[in-house]
Specification:
Length: about 210
């Protein structure tokens, strides 16, 4: 029997309508507040471990007064620490929803996890570069979609601490459920290690 893992995540920040640059969109004077509250679920932890896209489902809502308030996520996908280039992994979000008058929209976001100067694991894993696109846009179609807004969402420290308490597992018995949560932790830490230790491996290989 399969074992599942789920947890909640809440991120908030600002986006600017008509902007495509994330940094400018987050810091503009007229930026609009935007957040989401998601439950992310891995329905089969063993399959998740073997899947290079590490795909999970996401349900919940997007909150933005400028778009109509609290807006249910109709369909959502989350990908955990997928390979982008050597030494870089991405955490990907794609949420399909509609604004307050029913216009379809897609929120896409990515966290960039790589070994920069200094201790950046906290910044990398809690900073989401966010774009809102017009329509329900599938992966691979972003380049031809119409951008609506762009900005940055973040996880505040208190929200992250709360997130750690939301992990739950499903499975045939207690041992299987505990094992599923432990396995998710091993996957997460292992993928982080691949990103942050890559530069050290590269230097060692060069020295050899």
């Amino acid at each position: 029997m399969t074992s599942s893992v789920r947890f909640t995540e809440e991120m908030l920040g600002h986006v600017t309508f008509g902007e495509t640059d994330h940094e400018r969109g987050a810091g503009a004077a007229g930026a609009a507040a935007l957040m989401f509250h998601l439950t992310i679920e891995v329905d089969d932890i063993r399959r998740f471990e073997q899947d290079p896209t590490r795909r999970a489902t996401a349900v919940g809502y997007v909150g933005c007064d400028a778009l109509g308030g609290r807006l249910p996520v109709e369909r959502g996908v989350f990908n955990l620490l997928v390979d982008s280039e050597p030494g870089t992994k991405l955490m990907l979000y794609r949420l399909w929803f509609a604004d307050g008058v029913g216009h379809p929209l897609t929120l896409t976001g990515h966290k960039v996890v790589k070994d920069d100067a200094g201790f950046d694991v906290w910044r990398d894993t809690t900073t989401l570069f966010t774009t809102v696109l017009r329509g329900h846009v599938e992966a691979g179609e972003d380049a031809t979609a119409e951008p609506v807004a762009a900005g940055i969402l973040r996880i505040p420290a208190l929200s992250f601490a709360k997130q750690l308490t939301t992990f739950r597992a499903g499975g045939p018995d207690l041992l299987a459920r505990l094992g599923a949560i432990a396995r998710f932790g091993v996957i997460f830490v292992g993928q982080l290690a691949e990103a942050y230790l890559h530069r050290g491996r590269r230097r060692a290989d060069g020295a050899a």
